[in-house]
Amino acid sequence: AEDLIAKVAGKIGCELETVCVVTGKELVGLKYRHPVQDDLLCPVIIGGEYITTEAGTGLVHTAPGHGVEDYGVGMREGLEAFSPVDGAGKFTEEAANGKFTGLSVLKEGNEAVIKYVEEQGTLLLEEAYNHKYPYDWRTKKPTIFRSTEQWFASVGGFREAALKAIAEVQWVPESGQNRITSMVSDRSDWCISRQRNWGVPIPVFYEEDGTAVVDKEIIDRVQELFAKGSSDIWWELEADEILPEQHRGKGLVKGTDTMDVWFDSGTSWASVVRDNEEMAFPSDVILEGNDQHRGWFQSSLLTSVANSGHAPYKAVITHGFVLDEKGTKMSKSIGNVIDPLGIINGGKNQKLEPPFGADVLRLWACSVDYTGDVLIGTGIIKQVSDIYRKLRNTMRYMVGSLKDFDPAQNSVAYADMPLLDKYILKKFAETLEEVKTAYDSYAFSRAYQALQKFAIVDLSNFYLDIAKDRLYISGIDQSRRRSCQTAIHLMMEGFAIAMAPVLSHMAEDLWQALPYKTEGRTESIFGAGWRDVDESWMSLSEGSVGAWEKLRVLRAEINKTMELARTAKEIGSSLDAAVVLFIDEDSKKQLDGLLSSNGVDELRYLFIASEVIMADSEDAVKACSHHTINGETGWGIGVKNAAGDKCDRCWNYSPSVGVSADHPLLCDRCEVAIQDHPNFAG
After folding, report:
1. The dihedral of CA 637, 642, 646, 650: what is its sign?
2. Residue 614 per-residue DSSP state
3. Burial degree of 636 (CB within 10 A; 0-12, 13-18, 19+)
4. Does pLDDT of 681 surpass 60?
5. Which of 38, 351, 366, 583 could form a disulfide with 444 if both were Cys (CB 3.0 to 4.6 A apart)?
6. What predicted TM-score, i.e. pTM, was given to this entire model?
7. C-alpha to C-alpha distance for 484 and 475, rounded to whole angstroms
8. For residues 94, 96, 98 and 99, what is the CA-based torsion angle, rounded to 10 degrees?
């Protein structure tokens, strides 16, 4: 510590002379007289790694009874864990032969010690300096470390069994397994006693000299009394009233130690689960915050393995903590605590704090990655509420489209469906499989994303957009309409069941609003069970699926080109347009494999245009006033006004409008469709 000579000399205000230089190791074994207790000789020892030459003198006192690091050094050097401080934080008579008995360590006791060494002439310097020290988070006051006699449970005897049990449990996220494994691997003893004025007492009695007295008879007696009343009996009855007869009259006194609360909660599997006939043991799953690998997860594991030989749970789910929108921890003092009931029912000012309902809160919980900390606030909830409304509107549209549909009478067999319906059913089957896998692995955000994507991207933006023509324009019993209703019916029920674990109220509303009766349908959706995917839905070839995916990309490009024409006011609705399309031969062959004249798998219906013209060259595309050429795909898309007149019923433009003498305002397709309508008068 030669580097500290000048610094120490400057602080004490005198010049220091180097007499000789010795290493710290050479001082080990020497004894020095304690500066406060004259009759006590203390050894010089090698300290811990916390001793540095950055400050001080290079010599540091070690108090094994008052700090974790010092305790470790003391155990290594064979020092007594001396702790002359009582439970109230005051010096006992053991401190300096009673010189400071009864003085508070952190207040007058500290001042008295400084005054004493100053009077003895052994104090070279007193100074205030900043350093890190643990404070109690509740009282905001410094803590005092002191060694006391405690009760311990040894983990060493069953550590390997505990590690084996950890490996047999499903951990969500998987990192939780590594975390608890490292903690249990390094654990030797568990201090199960606490010194508190509340809690479950440790049923131990003591003789006058402090010898602990506990045996099976005492444990059985205490257990019997607790079962009849509660653990309060320990504090309410005298010792001899609790003790079994053979121990009475011996002057035994009750212990005041209480059980570690982690031991209490860690044995809840026994009282709450194992001994309850209505519950299964081990539990299917337990759920707590990511700070519980050291707490409840571990205490439950250790007590169960020691008692039963296995973990008390099959799966452990760990979640993060809920922060406000800015990522700040919620605190009453800050005023940023968000009440879940406020989200559900709204605040006092319902305009500023509207009620979003329980489903929106549930949807938010499902949308976030709960394995880490998550944010919540009014802005976030509003975004989730928008998604909720989109989902609800999609389901409402689907219910409305089935008003005249009876599955028993009107369903179309899968084999007779057009390719569009087979494609969307395969997409739905894949979505259900993805959702089920996500639920099974507790990955709720993945289930949310899959459901949301299918409802908005695949249904609302694609399939249902195209379906309007089939549902509204077709004859009531035309196959193109009934097939569409069949697909919607199958998807709607399956979707409702898939979202029921999250959007419980919406799913039940939908179930009750189904406009038809089916054999075996349960009164509530929550009695329906999971719907397995029909294997036939997965039968559509990968080639066909790839062609449909390409068609959807093409459809998006066409919509962009139509928007150019719409902005220029050349067209209004997309049905005002004829699309001129030039595509590469490979893409054309792919699309030709999908298309037919069945009134569904036709480009004009898929693109929602009155006409689609397949061009032989880019020139025909470029002849249109609004066109785009995709340099990557080579696709050319042109938009122009459709030929013919507008049909009053379907709004498509067609040369057939005006041909019929009976219905001059209708196209030939609508003239056929109205023949089947029950209100058609001829």
Report:
1. negative
2. E
3. buried
4. no
5. 366
6. 0.77
7. 13
8. -160
